[in-house]
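Re-running the complex after MR caught last week's input typo. The corrected sequence lines follow. Everything else is unchanged.
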Amino acid sequence: MERTLPAADVKARIGALAVGLASDCDAPESDVSAILDANLPGATGLPFVAFLTADGAWVAGYSGSKDVTAFVKFLADAEASPARDATPAVRKQLDKVAKAATAAAAKGDWKPVLAAGREAAKTSGRCPERDAIRAAEKLAAEWLAAQWNEIAADARSGADLAPARRRLAEIKKHFAGQPAAAEAETGVKALLRLTRIREAEAASGPSPTGRRRAAEEFAGSRWADLFATSDAETDAK
Amino acid sequence: MPKLALVASLLTLTGAAIAAPQKHPHFDDRGTLAWHTTLAAAKAAARAEDKLILVEYGREA
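Corrected-run output:
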């Protein structure tokens, strides 16, 4: 495996196909041993190598070593395996939420999209329904990234921060209960702090100490950069 | 959006937490795969990334 996995024909494909599970045969997990014992009965030559689905179902496997050519064939068989496809039960489970997610994404309503993503995460297997949910989640992620970028741009440019506050409120509404909502809540505090710094600077001139302290207060969050001197202020110097 | 960035964004969206993968404990695969050492962590990662799990069951040479 040490020589096979990095081979060009293998490396380019297997990273897109699988994550790795390194199991020490001298201290194996009982679940892993049970799967291998059931599907490679009597095997003795190490290593034992297998593809499993995300649910732990068997796809294919072998014991002993394979050269690159043989491993590429093993890889191709796994790529084409119907075991990778979602079961009819999973497709039925995801059908309704996938349709809801697609419709919601078209309207920029991200709550149903997140709910669909959570439902999909409980299942595995390729299917058009999962693809639809992924596409909707991608739109949600892109919308969220655009909001963060716009807020940062407003803060850097010295612009009125009211639109940025409205964006944060929208994020909190759409992503309630999710990490993004917590980040937005922190953002509200950061914008309030920036507003006060701007007011103090308007009255008394630049306050690099105030900005540094605020940046330290929000260190580790996306908001620390808000306290760098704004583009407009830099231009004015 | 690059695929890794998208996966990270989706995990951020859903708040999913997955144990960080690491290098293979017994050999250097030159960055080919992200390796987990428990079936539970490998399942979670595979589910999040719509991938299979490659099991390598062996010992250090």
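None of the earlier attempt is carried over here. The longest strand of chain B covers residues 52-58. The mean pLDDT of chain B is 79.
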